[in-house]
Design brief:
The chain has 579 residues and is an all-alpha fold. It has three domains: 384 residues, no CATH class; 135 residues, Alpha Horseshoe (Serine Threonine Protein Phosphatase 5, Tetratricopeptide repeat), CATH 1.25.40; 43 residues, no CATH class. It contains 29 helices and no strands. Helix 14 packs across helix 15, helix 22 runs antiparallel to helix 23 and helix 23 runs parallel beside helix 25. The longest helix is centred in the first third of the chain and has 27 residues.
C-alpha cells in the first residue's frame, strides 16, 4: 500500500513536471472558438441548461460547465486552463496505474507502464492543447469506471459496480468517447476476467447481467444526445460512413501510422492531410489493411489461450473505435485521438516487465529509464511548439509543407498579428503548386480584404469553384466587398445565390438583411427573424433590435431587445437599446 502511494505521488509529480514549460502557452487553434469567443461559458446560467443544448455541434455539457467554472476563476488567462488540463492528465496517469496494478498485480511493472504513458510525446496535443485537455475529463471518468468494474470483479465489493456506473454516466456527459467503457468491460470479461474454462461461451450468464445497466445507460445517453443535437454523430456530419470498405482501408493506413508514432513519436504535426481512400486502392493501403486484419484476427484467436496480450492489443481498437470514422467525426487522423488507446503500450511494457526474470529486471529498468528520459525531452520540446498560434502552424508547415490546411492556418495566424505581406507570400507560393485550391484561395481573399485590396480579394473568391465548404464563404465575402465599395445593389446577387442553395443559412440571411436595409427595401426584418429561428443565436436578435433602432422604429427595437435580454441578460448592446 505504501509503495503504491509513493508510486502515485511520483507519477503525478512527473506528469505535471513534463508539461511545466507549457503553462505560459497562449490560447491556440480551437481555443478561440470554445473558450475565448464562447459567450456560453462567460454568462451565469442554471446548470440544467447545459444539458439541454449543444455547443458548436458537440454535446459535452460537463465539459462546458468546467470551462465556465474555470472562466469564473481565471477569466481569459490561459494559465488557469492549463492547470486544469494538466491536472486532469496527471489524474488519468494515476488511474491507469491503478488499472495496471489490478491487472498485473505487480506495482513495479505498473509503475513503468504508467510512467511511459505519462511522458509519451504523442500525448502532447491532447494535454498541451487546452481545448483537447478538457476532454480528458471524460477519459478520467470512464477509465475510473473500468477500474472500479475490475475491482468489483476481483471481489473488492459490489458497491464498486454502482460506483462504476456513476462514473460511466459522468464520462458520457463529459465526452461521447466514454461510450467505449461497456465495450472495454466486455473485452475484459471475455479475456482476462473470464472464468476458467468459460472462454467465449456464455455459460456463466448470470455474471454477465452486470453488463445490462451499462448498456441501458449508454442507450439513454444516446437518446438524450440525439434529441439535443438531432443526430448521434457530431452535428453537421453524416450519421454513418457510406463506404465501409473504403473507410476500412483508409483507417487501416491510419492505424499503421498510429502504431509507428507509438514506437517512434516523430515527426509530430497538428494536422495530417489524410483523405478518404477510394477504389482502386494503392498497394500500400491494401498491405496496411491486410496487416491490421491479420493482427486483429490473431488477437481474437488467442483471447482464450493468451488473454493478457490479446486484451492489451484489442484495447487499442476498442478504445479508438469512436474515432475510426464508422460514425464520421470530420477528422480522419489526429494525435489526440490516440491518448487513451496508447495505454496498449503501457500494458505490454508492464507485461514484459512482470515476465522478466529478477536477474534481468535491472536491464529492463535501465531501458525504461532511457526511453522515459528521451520521451521527457521530446515532450518538453513539443510543448514549446504550442506556445502560440503562429509557432504552432509554422512548425506544421515545416513538417508538412504540402498540406493546404496547415498553410491556410499559418496564413490566418500571420494575418492576425499584422503580417499580411508574409501571409500573402506564403499563400501565393502554395498556390504555385495547386492554383485551384479553394481553401488557399479563400485565405488569400481574406488577406486582401484585410489590407483593403478589395478588387484582388473578389478576384480570388471568384476563382473558388462551387462546393459547400468554400463557395458559401466566398460568396458571403463577395457581398461584403461590394457593400464596402458602395455597390449594395450588386451585393444582392451573391447573397440570393447562397439563399437559393442554402435557404436556412443564418449568416447569409443576416447579411442579406443589411443589404436590404442599405437599399431601403422591405423584408430585412423577416430575414433576421429566420436567421435567429434557424440558429438559435441571440446575436441575430441583437442585430434585429439594432436594425429597428437604426431605421427609426424605437418601439419595435425595445420590444425585440427585451426578448433578447430574456435569453442573454448580460448582452451590453441590447441593454444599450433599452436606454
Amino acid at each position: 500500500m505504501r509503495n503504491n502511494l509513493f508510486n502515485l505521488v511520483v507519477l503525478f509529480f512527473l506528469s505535471m513536471l513534463v508539461y511545466a514549460n507549457s503553462f505560459q502557452n497562449r490560447f491556440a487553434w480551437d481555443d478561440d472558438l470554445f473558450i475565448v469567443q464562447n459567450r456560453e461559458i462567460k454568462t451565469a446560467q442554471p446548470w440544467p441548461k447545459y444539458f439541454l443544448e449543444g455547443s458548436e455541434g458537440l454535446y459535452r455539457p460537463l465539459r462546458t460547465m468546467l470551462y465556465s467554472v474555470t472562466y469564473r476563476f481565471s477569466g481569459l488567462n490561459p494559465v488557469g486552463y492549463h492547470i486544469v488540463g494538466k491536472t486532469l492528465n496527471a489524474l488519468v496517469v494515476c488511474v491507469l496505474y491503478a488499472l495496471l496494478v489490478l491487472l498485473f498485480t505487480d506495482s513495479r511493472a505498473a509503475f513503468w507502464g504508467a510512467l511511459l504513458f505519462a511522458l509519451h510525446p504523442l500525448h502532447t496535443e491532447r494535454v498541451t492543447f487546452i481545448t483537447a485537455s478538457y476532454d480528458i475529463m471524460g477519459d478520467l471518468f470512464w477509465l475510473s469506471s473500468v477500474v472500479c468494474y475490475v475491482a468489483g470483479r476481483r471481489g473488492r465489493g459490489e458497491w464498486y459496480f454502482v460506483l462504476s456506473m456513476v462514473l460511466f454516466t459522468l464520462g458520457l456527459f463529459s465526452s461521447e468517447t466514454a461510450a467505449v467503457a461497456p465495450l472495454v468491460i466486455i473485452l475484459y470479461d471475455l479475456t482476462i476476467g473470464s472464468e476458467k474454462g468459460e472462454g467465449w461461451k456464455f455459460a456463466a450468464l448470470r455474471s454477465k447481467i452486470v453488463w445490462v445497466p451499462f448498456l441501458v445507460l449508454l442507450l439513454a445517453y444516446l437518446s438524450i444526445r440525439s434529441s439535443v443535437l438531432g443526430t448521434v454523430a457530431r452535428s453537421g456530419t453524416s450519421a454513418f460512413n457510406t463506404d465501409p470498405i473504403g473507410n476500412y482501408v483508409t483507417m487501416s493506413g491510419v492505424v499503421v501510422q498510429y502504431f509507428k508514432l507509438l514506437l517512434i513519436p516523430w515527426p509530430l504535426v497538428v494536422v495530417r492531410d489524410v483523405t478518404q481512400a477510394v477504389a482502386p486502392f494503392s498497394n500500400l493501403l491494401l498491405l496496411s489493411a491486410l496487416f491490421v486484419s491479420v493482427l486483429i484476427v490473431t488477437a481474437l484467436l488467442y483471447c482464450k489461450k493468451n488473454p493478457m496480450p490479446a486484451f492489451s492489443f484489442l484495447w487499442f481498437f476498442v478504445v479508438l473505435s469512436p474515432n475510426l470514422n464508422f460514425i464520421p467525426t470530420g477528422t480522419l487522423m489526429a494525435e489526440r485521438y490516440v491518448y487513451i488507446p496508447s495505454a496498449m503500450l503501457s500494458f505490454f511494457v508492464a507485461l514484459v516487465f512482470r515476465e522478466t526474470s529478477e536477474t534481468q529486471k535491472q536491464k529492463a529498468v535501465f531501458w525504461c529509464l532511457a526511453v522515459a528520459t528521451v520521451f521527457f525531452v521530446m515532450t518538453a520540446a513539443r510543448n514549446h511548439v504550442w506556445r502560440n498560434e503562429t509557432a504552432l502552424w509554422a512548425d506544421a508547415v515545416n513538417t508538412s509543407p504540402r498540406g493546404s490546411s496547415v498553410v491556410a492556418n499559418l496564413s490566418v495566424a500571420l494575418k492576425d498579428i499584422g503580417q499580411n505581406d508574409q501571409a500573402e507570400k506564403l499563400l501565393l507560393y502554395a498556390l504555385r503548386v495547386n492554383a485551384a485550391d479553394p481553401l488557399l484561395l479563400e485565405k488569400l481573399g481574406g488577406v486582401y480584404m484585410n489590407v483593403g485590396r478589395l478588387d484582388e480579394a473578389e478576384k480570388a473568391y471568384l476563382q473558388i469553384p462551387q462546393n459547400p465548404k468554400n463557395w458559401y464563404g466566398a460568396q458571403l465575402n463577395i457581398a461584403v466587398i461590394r457593400m464596402r465599395q458602395g455597390k449594395s445593389a450588386e451585393a444582392v446577387k451573391p447573397l440570393e445565390e447562397i439563399l437559393e442553395k442554402y435557404p436556412d443559412e443564418a449568416k447569409a440571411l443576416n447579411d442579406y438583411a443589411y443589404v436590404l436595409i442599405s437599399l431601403e427595401r422591405k423584408g430585412w426584418s423577416s430575414a433576421l427573424v429566420r436567421a435567429f429561428a434557424n440558429s438559435g443565436d441571440v446575436e441575430y436578435i441583437k442585430n434585429l433590435a439594432v436594425s429597428y433602432q437604426v431605421t427609426g422604429n424605437a418601439v419595435a427595437a425595445k420590444k425585440v431587445a427585451q426578448i433578447g435580454l430574456y435569453l442573454d441578460p448580460q448582452n451590453e448592446k441590447l441593454l444599450t437599446v433599452l436606454k
